[in-house]
Write a structure and sequence with these properties.
With about 425 residues, this protein is an alpha/beta fold. Helices cover about 35% and strands about 15% of the residues. It has 13 helices and 16 strands. The strands form five sheets. Strands 2, 3, 7, 11 and 12 form a five-stranded parallel sheet that branches. β11, α8 and β12 form a beta-alpha-beta unit. The structure holds zinc ion (ZN). The site of zinc ion has 5 residues, from loops. Zinc ion binds next to loops.
Length: about 425
C-alpha cells in the first residue's frame, strides 16, 4: 500500500508540475480600458538571471595503475521480515539469504555512503579495452579514465538478476516492467497481503535509477551497473528459457513455444530501456555452473556457453564479460594459468573474467587477451565482519558496516567486529 501511495504521489507531483508549467506560459491579456492610453513606457527588459549552475568540475586522469573499485550485489530483499523469519523456506535457505543478500534499507544506506565518499560509477567496458600490440597480438589493457576531480571510479555489478522462482516466494520483487512513464519499474507482490503493484523503491535496479537521477554526479555519463545473467529461468523476470526436455514432437511443445515467444517479445523493451539508461550486460553462465568443479568438464562448459548465447545473448546482445558463478575460477583457481576451459571461454568472446575477493584486484593476462578481476561483496557475510572482523576494514573505504547492517531484522547470528 505504502508503495502505491508513493507512486500516486509521484504522479500527482508530475501533474502539478505540468499544471504550473502551463500557468507560467498562460499570461492572460487584461481588458483594455476605454480611457486614452498614456504613452506606453517600455517595460524594462528583465535582466537575465544567471542560471544557478555549478561550474563544471574539471576532469582528471585516473591512470592504469590506480585501482578501480568494484562492488557486486545480489537482488535486494524487499521484505526482510518475511525473508528472514515469516516465509515458509527452510532455516538454511534463510541463512543463505542472510549470507549473500542485503535488504533494501541496507542497500540504500550503502549507496548513500559510497556516494558521500566520492565514488562515481563507471562502465567495465570503459575500464578495459582490447588493443593490438606491435606484433599484431590482441591484448587487453587498462585504460586511463577521465573523471571529475575529487571523484573515485567505481564499478557496480548485480548478479543473478533473473528473478528466480524461489526469490518470488521469499520477499523479492518479481520482474521488471515498463511503466506508463516509459521508465523501468519493478513488479512486486506483498507476501502478507498478496497485493501486486509496481514500485521503484524495492528493487536494486530501480533504486539505482532513482539515485542517479537525484545525484547525477554519482555516474560518469549516466552509466549504472552491469547485470550478470544466467539463463535457466529466463531473464529479468521473463521465462525466456528453452526446455530441451520437451521434444520437438511433444504435444506440449506448441504451447511451450508460444509462451516462450511471448516472454521473449515482452522482455525486449525492458532490455532496450535498460541499455538506454546506462545498464549493460554480462554472462553468469546459463546454468550457474561451478567452473572450478572437476565435474563440470570442458564439454559441459561448451554446452552451457552455447545455450547462454542462444537464450540470453540472442536477447541482450554480445558481451565480453563473464562473472564466475560462486566466484569459482576454471582450471584450478590459478589466475596465472590459462587452462582449457579459460581458453575456450576466451575463444567465445569473453575478455573480462570476474571473480569475488577481498579487494578489487585485477590483472591483465600476458599470454592471452583477457583480464582477471575480483569484486567485493557487500552482504551478510561481510557486514557481519567476516573472519576475525577483518571485513570491517576491507569495506571501510565504502561504508562502516556497523552503521549499515540491520541487526534488528536479520536472524540472530552475531557479528565478528
Ligand atoms: Zn550467482
Amino acid at each position: 500500500m505504502k508503495h502505491i501511495l508513493h507512486r500516486a504521489a509521484a504522479l500527482g507531483l508530475a501533474l502539478l508540475l505540468a499544471a504550473s508549467a502551463a500557468g507560467c506560459g498562460g499570461k492572460q491579456p487584461t481588458a483594455e480600458s476605454s480611457a486614452p492610453a498614456p504613452e506606453a513606457t517600455p517595460t524594462p527588459e528583465p535582466t537575465p538571471m544567471p542560471e544557478p549552475t555549478t561550474p563544471p568540475v574539471p576532469l582528471v586522469a585516473w591512470g592504469p595503475d590506480q585501482v578501480v573499485e568494484h562492488l557486486f550485489f545480489h537482488p535486494v530483499i524487499a521484505y526482510p521480515q518475511w525473508a528472514f523469519h515469516d516465509c515458509p523456506s527452510s532455516k538454511s535457505q534463510k541463512e543463505g539469504l542472510d549470507d549473500w543478500m542485503v535488504t533494501v534499507e541496507e542497500f540504500n544506506k550503502i549507496l548513500q555512503s559510497v556516494y558521500e565518499k566520492g565514488y562515481i560509477l563507471v562502465s567495465m567496458n570503459d575500464v578495459w579495452s582490447e588493443v593490438q600490440d606491435e606484433n599484431g597480438q590482441w591484448r587487453m589493457q587498462r585504460n586511463t579514465l577521465m573523471i571529475p576531480e575529487g571523484k573515485k571510479p567505481l564499478i557496480m555489478s548485480y548478479d543473478d538478476t533473473n528473478y528466480y522462482e524461489y526469490m518470488l516466494e521469499e520477499g523479492f520483487t518479481s520482474k521488471l516492467v515498463i511503466g506508463e512513464d516509459g521508465n523501468v519499474w519493478a513488479e512486486c507482490t506483498d507476501p502478507y497481503t498478496g497485493e501486486t503493484f509496481l514500485t521503484q523503491d524495492l528493487d536494486a535496479i530501480t533504486i539505482l535509477d532513482k539515485f542517479v537521477a537525484e545525484h547525477p554526479d554519482f555516474s560518469l555519463n549516466g552509466v549504472k551497473a552491469c547485470l550478470s545473467l544466467t539463463g535457466y529461468q529466463g531473464i529479468l523476470g521473463y521465462r525466456t528459457q528453452n526446455d530441451i526436455d520437451i521434444a520437438a514432437d511433444d504435444p506440449r511443445r506448441p504451447a511451450f513455444d508460444a509462451n516462450r515467444e511471448s516472454e521473449r517479445r515482452a522482455v525486449k523493451p525492458i532490455i532496450q530501456r535498460l541499455k538506454e539508461t546506462g545498464w549493460y550486460f554480462g554472462s553468469h553462465t546459463w546454468g550457474h555452473i561451478n567452473l572450478g568443479s572437476e565435474k563440470v568438464d570442458l564439454e559441459w562448459v561448451k554446452r552451457d556457453t552455447v545455450r547462454w548465447e542462444q537464450e540470453v545473448g540472442s536477447l541482450v546482445g554480445p558481451t565480453t564479460i563473464l562473472f564466475y558463478p560462486h566466484g569459482a575460477r576454471p582450471d584450478g583457481d590459478d589466475w596465472h594459468k590459462t587452462g582449457p576451459k579459460f581458453q575456450y571461454l576466451q575463444s567465445q568472446g569473453f575478455r573480462i573474467f570476474a571473480s569475488v575477493g577481498i579487494n578489487s584486484f585485477s590483472y591483465v593476462k600476458q599470454d592471452i587477451s583477457a583480464v582477471i578481476c575480483d569484486r567485493l561483496h557487500p552482504d551478510g557475510t561481510t557486514l557481519r565482519g567476516g573472519p576475525g572482523g577483518k571485513a570491517l576494514g576491507w569495506y571501510s573505504q565504502f561504508y562502516d558496516a556497523r552503521e549499515i547492517i540491520d541487526l534488528k531484522v536479520r536472524p540472530d547470528l552475531g557479528v565478528t567486529w
